[in-house]
Design goal:
The protein is an all-alpha fold. It contains 22 helices and no strands. Helix 2 (about 30-45) runs parallel beside helix 12 (about 265-295), helix 3 crosses helix 10 and helix 10 crosses helix 12 (about 265-295).
């Protein structure tokens, strides 16, 4: 078998496994990405697949631009601007602080050389939002909290990579300075050049792509342009100008997602581009987390258990100091953040694919490389499995899932009511066809009618108490009806009732309706029903006391 055939075969097998895991997680309460890691850990010792290794080039050059661009494309600038101070505080100051704290702990606790300890701190300080944000969407949590988590993880990726490369340059003797004072000054200058250089590259590519999309209305062409922007900004920054490719992709994605999308893309194109990047992120995430599970060698982790334990302790302690120490300072100039949110930011700071890619990119000649690989893999596995699997109970314990709980209660009642109505209608049909006797019919009808009335009463009470639930139900029904209209238009096109031109024009109008509906504020961004009732009760009490 040729190398090309082998690579394609492995790729298809990995996709089959990922698809199977995705189907299972629809029924099992385990986040999809975490389930992929678990499956990878299980099947790796079985040698079910040929030996598959994660190369740093695979993640950094192929996977990372797609993940970063998709996340930046969907990040609203208004939401980002409102929370920019806590995001940048955690992503820049927090990462730098974490690198120093982790390095100091490992140096003094297990006598790890300063160079290795600081390298580990840089590799493990970047958080991975993928699993956390998927859980947030599932539970319907605050949009502001989701924006802070996603924004921090995006920007701290750039900060961590820049710091990692600067430390690695010093360790390898290529930083251009020999004394510590010169090293720090040189590193600071390099940091500024690399960061602002990445911003400039990303802004240039993003503006150019946004301008080009305004001259066309072809969703295939515009999908291609966004792909070129994502990977082109990465390659220009990395290979040509030697600035931060991560920050370049982020900036390009933010500009195209907020400026290019609004100014140069029709609603039909927006939906097509969004679907493309959503699928690209799904495939990349699936492969990354499955490969992490396959790459981890449990004997290697067992041999380094003591070092990994110290690494995890240092990682958690540094994260706690960064979150609980810096967030109160940032709140002096921005909207207050509920204290339970800080617990989520601390425990939800998962580590993932970027940490793996950075440690695998270390030179094979680097002293202590094998120990660093084991420590990073162990810390990532702990973060994904222990923190990831306990985050959902933590959110419920903190009372941050109230909106989703009430919405789910509404859905369950509504589903039961529809099922009862269908059973009653089928029972009437059986009687009319002479399939059952009148006695059986009357007994079953009485039972079904009582159940239907009870569910209708409960549903009416819940709907009257929570207008937000009613609004979300209306939004879902409107989206469903738009899909019904699109399906009918497709039928009319096949039947020859509509011409191609008329079909595309009517389809575009429905896309505009769908885009307008999507831009409305979803229930998770509004005030939760529970808090609304508390405030309402408080207002009523206050008015009563005034009287």
């Amino acid at each position: 078998m040729s190398e090309t055939h082998f690579a394609i075969t492995v790729f298809i097998v990995l996709l089959l496994i990922a698809s199977g895991v995705a189907m299972i997680t629809k029924r099992v309460r385990v986040p999809y990405t975490l389930a992929l890691v678990i499956v990878g850990l299980i099947i790796s010792p079985m040698h079910f697949l040929p030996t598959v290794h994660i190369s740093p080039e695979l993640i950094l050059l192929i996977f990372l631009p797609a993940l970063l661009f998709e996340a930046a494309w969907n990040l609203k600038w208004d939401h980002l601007r409102e929370n920019l101070l806590p995001i940048l505080t955690l992503a820049v100051v927090g990462v730098a602080l974490s690198v120093g704290i982790v390095g100091a702990i490992l140096h003094y606790a297990i006598a790890l050389p300063w160079s290795s300890a600081l390298l580990f701190g840089a590799m493990i300080s970047a958080t991975d939002p993928i699993s956390v944000l998927a859980l947030f969407k599932k539970l319907g949590l605050s949009k502001r909290l989701s924006t802070i988590v996603e924004g921090e993880s995006l920007f701290n990726d750039g900060t961590a990579v820049v710091i990692f490369k600067l430390i690695l340059g010093v360790v390898a003797g290529t930083a251009g300075a020999s004394m510590w004072g010169g090293v720090l000054l040189h590193s600071l200058r390099q940091f500024i050049v690399v960061v602002f250089g990445g911003l400039a590259v990303g802004a240039t590519v993003g503006l150019l792509a946004s301008t080009l999309t305004s001259y066309f209305d072809d969703h295939l062409l515009e999908i291609t342009l966004t792909t070129i922007a994502a990977y082109g900004s990465f390659l220009i920054a990395e290979e040509v100008l030697h600035v931060s490719p991560v920050i370049a992709v982020l900036m390009a994605g933010l500009i195209i997602g907020n400026f290019g999308r609004e100014r140069g893309m029709s609603p039909t194109t927006q939906i097509a581009v969004n679907s493309f990047w959503e699928y690209a992120a799904f495939v990349v995430n699936s492969l990354v987390f499955l490969l992490i599970g396959l790459e981890v060698q449990l004997p290697m982790l067992t041999e380094s258990a003591s070092s990994i334990a110290w690494a995890v302790l240092a990682m958690l302690l540094a994260r706690a100091i960064a979150v609980y120490g810096l967030i109160p300072l940032s709140q002096r100039a921005t909207a207050p953040m509920p204290f339970p949110w800080q617990h989520v930011l601390f425990w939800g700071g998962l580590r993932g694919s970027l940490s793996i890619a950075l440690v695998l990119s270390l030179p094979t000649t680097l002293s202590g490389r094998s120990d660093l690989v084991a420590m990073v893999f162990g810390a990532v596995i702990f973060s994904l499995l222990v923190q990831g699997l306990t985050l959902s109970p933590l959110l419920r314990r903190l009372g941050l899932t109230g909106v989703e709980t009430e919405l789910r209660a509404h859905e369950l009642l509504h589903g039961k009511l529809l099922a009862e109505m269908a059973a009653l209608a089928h029972l009437d049909s059986l009687r009319h066809r002479g399939m059952i006797t009148d006695a059986i019919y009357q007994a079953l009808r009485r039972s079904l009618s009582e159940q239907q009335q009870r569910l209708s009463h409960q549903l009416a009470q819940l709907g009257a108490a929570d207008r937000i639930i009613e609004r979300e139900q209306q939004r879902r029904l409107q989206r469903y009806l738009i899909d019904v209209k699109k399906a009918r238009l497709a039928e009319l096109l096949r039947e020859g009732v509509l011409s191609e031109a008329s079909y595309h024009e009517l389809h575009a109008q429905l896309d505009e309706e769908a885009a307008a509906l999507q831009s409305e504020q979803p229930f998770s961004e509004l005030e939760s029903p529970r808090s609304a009732r508390r405030e309402s009760a408080g207002t009523s009490s206050h008015e009563h006391q005034s009287e």
